[in-house]
Amino acid sequence: MSISITQMTRRFGQTEVLRGVDLTVGKGELVALLGPSGSGKTTLLRIISGLDWPDSGQLRVAGEDWLSKRAEQRRTGFVFQHYALFPHMKVRDNIAFGLTVLPREQRPSAAQIRTKVEELLQFLQIPQLADRYPSELSGGQRQRVALGRALAIDPEVLLLDEPFGALDAQVRRDLRRWLREVHEATGTTTIFVTHDQEEAFELADRVVVMGAGQIEQIGRPEEIYDNPATPFTASFLGLTVEIRVTLQAGRAVAPGIDASALALRDLPDGPATLFLRPSDIAPVADPEGAFIVTESLSTGALHRLRLEGPGNCIIEAELPRRAGAPGLAAGTKVRLRPETGQIFPGAARLTSRAA
Ligand SMILES: Nc1ncnc2c1ncn2[C@@H]1O[C@H](COP(=O)(O)OP(=O)(O)OP(=O)(O)O)[C@@H](O)[C@H]1O
């Protein structure tokens, strides 16, 4: 079912946790809410599920006003990071739970519930776990069961709050792929909360970047990755190098940096900030270069470099490390000619200390 959130606000005491959120999720879409801790992601999910209420704003699902419905009248499936399955129930009974507690007029028969659970166990690729207790499962298996429990009631909306947050990297990757397959087969409208950009980008049809109670940007993963719309999104998505530049006819100018490969910007002349990913700086050894490598560290796959240039400008850069190939040693002079980066009007805050 489609979800439409309009001008939603929520405050706790003096803290404005949601500050006028507008979001539409299409029927069958999988949207990732991506943002740092405290940006309001969980609060938004709790409001959709009926565990919390906004101070103002609207929530419509398939055109119906959900704020006039209690939690148990909304068909939502919810999976949390630490969703405690009932420890005294076997996996099959955990999955059946949501169906067994439906009001009598909606509740399927015991035989129908058994069939439904068997189908879900097969569909989620966990039939071998049916008769185990939660304590006999790995973290990843528990989350598969938790999703089974959420899906059993055929939810109109599926809400996943950092469901893989407590698992190790390889299990997370496996579960991501599995969840994407499950979503393609069920077509349930899904909101997935994460602060892990790789997870959001791999899973979602669209990514919603949240910062401090507001939506900073909404778009397809590659749109957001290539064109972060705000300084907040740029920093959050790894464009952590900020260099103070001057814009002249749309071209960034900074001492010692050749910005001629960057696209021209339709921005007024004046001070601006160039945001770059450490991996997009691509320093090249050049005796005439204006920057010098002052530190060079190897971390397995990468060389991490600290570069110093005109006006005490300090830049942290990264280069892929190839076995046997020498990196850029400390003391090497380099030139910088970045090919991708974002420019926003206004002065730099963090890494650049150019005069
Ligand atoms: N019941 C509450 N009472 C007071 N403050 C709350 C309450 N619930 C949340 N907050 C505050 O609201 C802000 C947003 O919290 P929320 O859990 O929505 O963020 P989040 O983006 O999901 O963060 P995380 O990734 O850490 O879960 C935080 O500053 C939090 O401390």
UniProtKB/TrEMBL annotation:
Lineage, uppermost ranks: Bacteria, Pseudomonadati, Pseudomonadota, Alphaproteobacteria, Rhodobacterales
Name recorded for this polypeptide: Sulfate/molybdate ABC transporter ATP-binding protein
Database matches in PANTHER family: SPERMIDINE/PUTRESCINE IMPORT ATP-BINDING PROTEIN POTA, SPERMIDINE_PUTRESCINE IMPORT ATP-BINDING PROTEIN POTA
GO function terms (MF aspect): ATP binding
Protein source organism: Pseudogemmobacter faecipullorum
Signal peptide bounds: none
Swiss-Prot/TrEMBL keywords: ATP-binding, Nucleotide-binding, Sulfate transport, Translocase, Transport
Domain ABC transporter intervals: 3-237
Alphabetical list of InterPro entries matching this protein: AAA+_ATPase, ABC_SmlMolc_Importer, ABC_transporter-like_ATP-bd, ABC_transporter-like_CS, P-loop_NTPase, Sulph_transpt1
